[in-house]
Write a structure and sequence with these properties.
Layout lengths: L11 E6 L2 E6 L4 E2 L4 H15 L11
Antiparallel strand pairs: 1-2, 2-3
């Protein structure tokens, strides 16, 4: 599986995992699906999509 988010990263490489091309992170030396970078991006996207209303602006009393 090639991860679209990783294609812009300078540490991204494509390697074979069995018979499938897979995103690999040379900075963390693991498959991209297990990197902190992808974890944070997924969390950011999840929170954005699951938010039912934006946080109210802070006003001082």
């Amino acid at each position: 599986m090639i991860i679209k988010h990783c294609l812009e990263c300078k540490y991204h490489t494509i390697r074979l995992d069995g018979n499938e091309e897979t995103s690999h992170c040379s900075r963390e030396n693991c498959w991209s699906r297990f990197t902190k970078c992808v974890l944070y991006k997924a969390l950011e996207r999840f929170l954005k999509e699951e938010s039912i209303r934006p946080d109210p602006p802070f006003t001082s009393p």
